[in-house]
Amino acid sequence: MGRRGARRTTRLVVARGPRRCGRTHDGGNRRAPPLEPADLPIPRTVERIGGLQAQYAPSACVGLWTPLKGFRRYLGGFGPSTTKEIAGWSGVPPTSLEGSLARMRLRRFRSEGGEVLHDLPRAPLPDGDTPAPIRFLPTWDATLLINERGTQILPEHHRPRVFNTKTPHSVPTFLVDGQVAGTWRFEAGRVRVEPFDRLPRTARVVLDDEAERLRAFHEDVG
What we know:
Elements lengths: L2 H14 L29 H10 L6 H4 L3 H10 L4 H8 L3 H10 L3 E4 L5 E4 L15 E3 L21 H4 L10 E4 L2 E9 L2 E6 L5 H21 L1
Antiparallel strand pairs: 1-2, 3-4, 4-5, 5-6
Helix pairs in contact: 5-6
């Protein structure tokens, strides 16, 4: 096998994933040839993901991998979501996703702005007046990133206190009524909270209870 054949096999492996030992991508039973060495960007970076897609996966293969588990996993954590939100997370252009999303078995809704929202068929959907519980979020939580701005979980006037030049990776935060209301840190065996504003007494009681559960978790894993 020449250099051209090795390149073709490399593209197929990246586009379709590895095969069992002894199987090739063209359906044969002979042992797969060694792959061509390639210079890859740093793992888990946009350049790595987008670069591989642009360099190896032909456009015809986009429809093969977009409906797979990754998109269902995303909807399991962040649904209902718009096509634009899914595209922003995956790095795939919205126009390349539309056909695949249309073929997937999903529930669909309309947002207040008229956008189509995709969700898993059996995903729970609480009533609109369901109270949001107080929760602690870790550093670099995906719900606070800029591509999730539409969720309004992080009020814009608080964003500089979470993401700034000193803490570009963000800081641990906690939610009250579904929005970031302060920061926290585990220090000297305690969970110390720093609210951005004065909290109602009832919210503070629940926050302290949740902090105690988080402290116990730290002790268990520590």
